[in-house]
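Aggregate trends can hide what the representation actually does to any particular protein. This step matters because it turns folding into a mapping between discrete strings. For completeness, the protein is quoted in full, as a sequence line and a line of structure tokens:
=====
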Amino acid sequence: MEKAADLRVIRTKKLIDEAFLSLVEEKGLEGVNVRSLTAKAGINRGTFYLHYQDIYDLMEKMEDQIIEEMNALPARSIPEQLLGSGSVEEPFPSIVEFIRFMNGRHRFFAIFFAQEGISFGKRLRTLIHSRMYEKLPRQAMNPDALAVPDEYIVAYFSSAHFGVIRHWFESGRTLPPEQVALILTRLVRDGPLLTALNRKPEQPQK
């Protein structure tokens, strides 16, 4: 009995999520309200209020779920592996997984990238920032010897990641996820100037 009830809750939430995404795609965020959403989902308003306080509560819980799943993605690579990669055509594995995840939920991300002035972009930027900060080989870094302070390095990489991903969504995801991951890998490894000139950085002589 309890299992059946849980399945009904899961099914209802899926109906609500799908109705929300469809309505925002059709009308924009400002065109969504509880009445239109419940009509689209084929449920009554009382059922909606059993799970959410309002549309913004629904949005927040959807964001929470996505960010929780993104945080759970395995980070199987470390910066030293990226720098030591012998192939220029091999994207950083953790970046591939990150982009594939977003591609798998492209309707959600496309909607929220398109909205101005909402919190989701800021939360995503914070998540990417923390991911990049964690990837820095901090044990091997001497702050006094760095040409650029580490917090500026992280700010640069995280902003670059965010900008590339946002452009990918705004341009209709015409490139496959693996190619976007390779672009990001090249930008991280070689820098924007050498990437634009299609050059690899010179390796220090041993």
User: Anything to note?
Assistant: The radius of gyration is 21 Å. The CA atoms of residues 52 and 61 lie 9 Å apart.
